Amino acid sequence: MKRFRPLLWLLWCLIIAAPLVFVGLEYEWGKGLWNATLRTDRLRFLVSDIPAWVGGHWLDVIGVLVFLGAVVGFLKLWQLTAWVQWRGEVETRTRGRVRQAGAMIVVILILTLSCRHLADTQIEWGVMVCTYILLALGLNLIVGMTGLLVLGYAGFVAVGAYTFAVLHQQFGLSLWLAFLPAALVGGLTGFLLGLPSLRLRGDYLAIVTLGFGETVRFLIKNLVGEQSIIISRPARVPSLMSENAAWRWLFPDGLTRLKTELWVAVALVVLSIWLIRNLTHSRIGRAWIAIREDETAAAAMGIPTVRLKLLAFTLSAIWAAVGGVFFVAHNTSANPEMFGFGESVLILSMVVLGGMGSGPGPIVGAIVLYLLPEVLRERFPVLISYRPMIVGGLMVAMMIFRPQGLVGSLRRKIELKEEQP
Amino acid sequence: MNGAVELETIIGGISRGAIYALIALGYTMVYGILGMINFAHGEIYMVGSFAAIVTLAILTTLTSASFGLAGCLVLSMGAAMLVAAAFGFTNERIAYRPLRRSHALAPLISAIGVSTFLQNFVMNAQTKDKVDFPRAFSDPLWERKLEIVGVHVALIQLIVLAMAVGLMVLLHLFITRSRTGKAMRACSQDKTMAALVGIPVDRVISLTFAVGSALAAAAGMMFTMYNGQTRFDVGYTAGVTAFTAAVLGGIGNIPGAMLGGFVIGLVEDLTAYHLGADWKYVAVFALLITVLIVRPRGLLGERVADKV
Predict the structure, then answer these.
(1) CATH topology classification for A118-409
(2) Most buried pick, A202, B25, B36, B265, via CB within 10 A?
(3) Do residues A310 and A105 touch, judged by C-beta distance below 8 A?
(4) Do A24 and B127 contact (CB within 8 A), yes or no?
(5) What is the CATH number of the domain that holds B142?
(6) Number of domains in chain B
């Protein structure tokens, strides 16, 4: 009986969901009443269409399964190398560095060689994935490393994005000069919000940051306006090296805007990985982990907890602001609705899926949650509209079955599973 | 400033506040027992509002609304409360119970997952557009206006207020007078001790979620009737507003949630009237942050919130 319990729960969920799924509504204007209709199309969908579709597309299904299997296999291999590295304790740090540097060089080589052949949509995916990786890395600093749940991350992204958008609109500031002011304003916002609110305990802090995210959106709506700000960019970037033969081979049709963005985004991601890696292995990073594991004990050991939490908050806001600049530059418009709660949840779920507090975790999370639905968009068009639902379900499942995330550390697993007094 | 209009705004704020109080009760009851913020509570409220509209549609189609106006409304409210109670119960069993002994972040993230899931479930299952409350049921209640010394009060405002207060009184009696209510209070004081004296703690927690969700559904139905429409994302704003009410009154404290709800309703309507509708969210969030920082235990809370 116990083996069938999950199935019984599934059946129960179907039963309670049935009134909302199988009853359709039709408005009758004259009477001001809704008429109920039975959604037989959905019944048919469940009973006959899905099996028929799977029968017709079994190659696709097998392909997706193989891909997921390959991802899991790769992660296992990665963990294996980590284990080997852990056995040889003396060499740990250099070998870890060699491993990561090697992985990065391979990625950059693949990118360089394939850049010639990439279509515009693929470059666009690349830019967006890099943006999300930046944002996830930044959020991981505060959620993963310091253990403070921030639910209004999109608010910081909006601050950076609008700093750039408004400066661009008023003074024609270009993308390359916008990073500095955006990072400054973003960091300042994070610092100012952190000052009063970091005194609060975990779940209250989550609510305050959630409120902050919403407040930013409403303030932008009321102060800047609800219309989108259009960001005009040149289609082609002039380059000094355009006569070089190797350069011509790499970029046969010149340096387009998209390709420049991709390269800058990749450079920013590499820089962030390096910075964050060094930061987390430093005194500061160890102090963050201590705060995450037991704040009272950390304070008792002489760690200035408030100052360090504030630092994490500010840094994470700076990353958000830089990501935000990219976000709107790539979208060529900024709108307050782009930075809603859904965006915060998406970034948070990338961190959770990949592994809170792990180095490669947010990267894997961003790739899986952004790239997979986009790549599969043509084959499985439903996937994009169901993504938020899948994200929600995944967050619950991850917390129950694998709280440390796909590539999380054992240490984090023990921490998250440990019994609370 | 027109005195009568001001009074009408205040009355509108009070009936809106009564609805917030009903949602806030769910937050505060769960916090009282489990010490966690049930993020998905706003979504249960939204599910309740949809369930009420679907029930009304079924009633109109199958029985051509032969129960009369009041009968149909009461039936749909009952159905919405049942559906929402089932959702709340399931939510706790699947997403929170396995995580009860883990790190404080785990149930919170799980709750956000449930909230995202439910929102998009309703969006995919029903529609992403606004859904009107059937005019035939709500308009007669708006059109009947009572005039008391120059102040116009719509019948619907009085009905909403009366029903909300009635439900609150019922809840109060249930918690203070019944055996199960006593068990709930015992669990919220000390779960281990309650288990030792033979109280089925798990069942009490399930019941708390079911009762809180039913109250949220009643609120969802009344708010949709009052506002005229609902959408898959209404649970988010209503949830945060009601949570503010719960914190304002002192989270974990049931009379506090009721008081907080009324205060928030008044603040919202007065801000909307004096500054414009766009500012009311900013006002609510500003109030929330101020309360959390200046007086985290709220107006009526006795327990000091455990800040680290």
Answers:
(1) ABC transporter involved in vitamin B12 uptake, BtuC (1.10.3470)
(2) B25
(3) no
(4) no
(5) 1.10.3470
(6) 1
Range ranked top by mean pLDDT from A1-5, B69-73, B228-232, B291-295 = B228-232
For residue A366, pLDDT over 50 is answered with: yes
Residue B44: predicted pLDDT: 95
Assign B83 a pLDDT band (cuts: 50, 70, 90).
very high
Q: Do A17 and B125 touch (CB under 8 A)?
A: yes
Q: Is residue B303 part of a domain?
A: no
**For testing contact with chain B, the best of A41, A42, A203 (most B CBs within 10 A):** A203
| CB within 8 Å: B120 and A399 | no
Is pLDDT larger for residue A288 or for residue A55? A288
| Interface probe with A: pick from B63, B120, B291, most Cβ of A within 10 Å | B120
The answer to whether the CB atoms of A392 and B305 lie below 8 A apart is no
For residue A189, what are its two tokens?
A: 């916002």
CA distance to partner chain B, nearest, from residue A141 (Å)? 15
Q: Residue B159's domain spans which residues?
A: 21-294
Residue B170 counted as domain residue? yes
Looking at residue A324, its pLDDT comes to 92
pLDDT in tens, B188-228: 888 889 999 999 999 999 999 999 999 999 999 999 988 88
State both tokens at A368: 């899986």
The residue ranking higher by pLDDT, A117 or A293, is A293
The tokens describing A417, both together, are 């599973």
DSSP state for residue B92 in the 8-state scheme: I
Q: How far is B26 from chain A (nearest CA, A)?
A: 17
pLDDT band for position A231 (50/70/90)? confident
Decide if A155 contacts A215 (C-beta within 8 A): yes
The answer to whether residue B260 is domain-embedded is yes
Q: Is B135 exposed, middle or buried (0-12, 13-18, 19+ CB in 10 A)?
A: middle
Give the chain B residue whose CA is nearest to the CA of A6: B94
Domains in chain A: boundaries: 118-409
Residues of A (287-346) whose Cβ lies below 8 Å from B: 295-296, 341-342, 345
In a domain, B9, yes or no: no
> Span A151-159, mean pLDDT?
92
Closest CA relative to residue A241, chosen from A253, A256, A257, A254: A254
What secondary structure does DSSP assign to B233-253, as a single string? THHHHHHHHHHHHHHHH-TT-
Chain B residues in contact with A12 (beta carbon < 8 A): 90
3-state secondary structure A181-199: HHHHHHHHHHHHHHHHHCC
